[in-house]
């Protein structure tokens, strides 16, 4: 018997389903591309006696500080477009076991052979880093936005400094919404520990959006919609950049002074 979900968890699932539709409509979620986790520890209460009814599914690479924390995560192979309709097949709620040797599957995961996303190590490391730093962000969203990925393939926009300058120079909102810019993680094998560790370093540098070179983007937010909005805003800047390039000309762009002025006027408060 799965746990009974509170209203607040239903709301989280509803938002994740909605964002899954946006990602699909944007063309950033081909097949099973992307994955997501939400720290819902504050919304899950279960007695030790009840927890015992959910056998531990072994998992490696979990740190002791993850113990007892609860997450809503997508399953590996899940299509974002399916989440809204089939949430309990596409998502699961897991609680990391007391000894951090695995997790209890409390809800969902109803699809045959269900396993959490292959990027679970990245998600848990990022979630832990957010939690330890007292951040308000609870959602880690990974997706494959076309134009941002394309820019990581072009020498003139590859790398943290060049990418952020190109994006910020396209439209003031890129600097306003993502004032610290996108953190850059050089290409690493999908689902590898190296990818997870490099991503956490970018978060610790206070980036809310992180680029995985030649792969995709991660964003953190207080909810799924906020994380989506950050990627959407930056991908719009990437589209503008590529539209200008398609004319055969180099975009004029906002100057460094104009970008600095925006940065000072709309400096982040956190
Ligand atoms: P999963 O289906 O395992 O979540 O993988 C999708 C993905 O985008 C890997 O980076
Ligand atoms: Zn991916």
Account of the 3D structure:
This protein has 270 residues and is an alpha+beta fold. It contains ten helices and nine strands. It is elongated, with a radius of gyration of 19 Å. Bound molecules: 1,3-dihydroxyacetonephosphate and zinc ion (ZN). The site of 1,3-dihydroxyacetonephosphate has 13 residues, from loops. 1,3-dihydroxyacetonephosphate binds next to loops.
Question: How many structurally independent domains?
Answer: 2
CATH architecture of the largest domain: 3-Layer(aba) Sandwich
Strand-residue proportion = 15-25%
Distance between the termini: 42 Å
Order of helices and strands: HEHEEHEEHEHHHEHEEHH
- Radius of gyration from the CA trace? 19 Å
Which fold name is given in CATH as the topology of the largest domain?
L-fuculose-1-phosphate Aldolase
Judged by helices, strands and strand pairing, the structural class is alpha+beta
Number of helices: 10
